[in-house]
Amino acid sequence: MTKQIILGHYLGGLNHQTLWSDPAAGSQIDFASFKHAAQTAERGKFDFFFLAEGLVLRERQGQIFDQDVIGRPDTLTVLAALAEVTEHLGLVATLNATFNEPYELARQLATLDHLSGGRAGWNIVTSSDAFTGRNFRRGGFLAREDRYVRAQEFLTVARQLWDSWSAGDITADKESGRFLSRPDAGEFAFSGKQFDVSGRFTVPRSPQGQPVILQAGVSSEGREFAAGGGPDAIFSPYHTLAEAQPFYREIQQRAAAHGKPPGSVKVLPGAAFVLADTETEAIERHREIAHAQITGRGAQILLETVWNRDLSGYDPDGPLPDVDPDPDGPPIIQGRARIHQNPADTIAQWRSIAEENKYSLRELAIHVFGHVEFVGTPTQIADRLHDFVQNEGSDGFIIGSHLTPTGLDEFVDRVVPLLQERGSLRTDYEGTTLRDNLGLSTPVGSAG
């Protein structure tokens, strides 16, 4: 039986993946951009639309990071507006478990689920840095090793709140003019290391029961949280079958060890594409886009996130910096998630890649930060996506584009029909909620 491909679409902010200077690029703030991207994804029968969120403007050596400004309207507000102009598309928000509170966030997500008819999702992320924390009352109090402790408790509390109501708990009696509900509907109490809360949740059970939960993280703690802590899907950083298959198997094995049924945790790598009528044209177009995305100055700054040194004196078209990283020094780049936990090992690998391929500093940056994996004709890309999922590299992909907001159009017009011909992508929506369309079970509320 052909496995169905899960597709999400993310709209990137202003960074090295976005060609904001392209004449065809649109606004990162105007609602028309979000509307076009979401409606295009729905036209292509995508499962969900995904928005990341930046809680702080990035800085380099104390100055606003002009190579990568991540500022955009509030995610939940945008998704609530998109609920009105879409019918089937899931609406997934990246929201931080470190600087928010369970009651507030659970209430907002349950509201979005009601407004959208059961299409809400939450990509749960964490943070431990004081730079981001200074925007919040709690500041940078959270030790790095406690991030997932708080995230796990946060999710546990949120689910208790969502489950404090059961379907049918509240009814309207027109004769008496009163609302009737179960006496203890909405009541909750939780006491743990991170939270000590009790009260009564104000939002009745939403159409999905609980929003779909997604999570990113490939550390040992992140993998265990993804498999056992409750997320319905995990983002994967792997884009070749050789790397992706072991990760996919590990997540499924960890989930099974926690008593979860097969397929209950979806694995979804991020992906981008470059299309053309011939493979040669696609490769050339990819080269042009990559060099426009990562300028010489941009390459220096991207490598500074790992070296933690000022690399502005190094020639972008020359060899890699001949100095070691400074992981213990004051961060030169503030506000960017740290994805390379061991800078020395990472740089050693990069030196090997650069030597083998004769890469310059900029070419190495394009190679490791480029994020464009699918390059070719529509048929070639459809074949690769199809084969990747059928061979258990993932359950689907989160598709992005270098162009906002129209970058997804050609994928929907030229690749989606080919996936539908192969039987690996729906031709129409069958379910009414995001859980339905992802093939996930509906949680049974503890109060029910």
TrEMBL record:
Residues the record lists as binding FMN: 94, 148, 219
Record-linked CDD domains: Nitrilotriacetate_monoxgenase
Record-linked InterPro entries: Diverse_substr_monoxygenases, Luciferase-like_dom, Luciferase-like_sf, NTA_MOA
Family: Belongs to the NtaA/SnaA/DszA monooxygenase family.
Gene3D superfamilies: Luciferase-like domain (3.20.20.30)
Domain Luciferase-like: 26-390
Protein name per its UniProtKB record: Nitrilotriacetate monooxygenase component A
MF terms (GO), sorted A to Z: monooxygenase activity; oxidoreductase activity, acting on paired donors, with incorporation or reduction of molecular oxygen
Keywords: Flavoprotein, FMN, Monooxygenase, Oxidoreductase
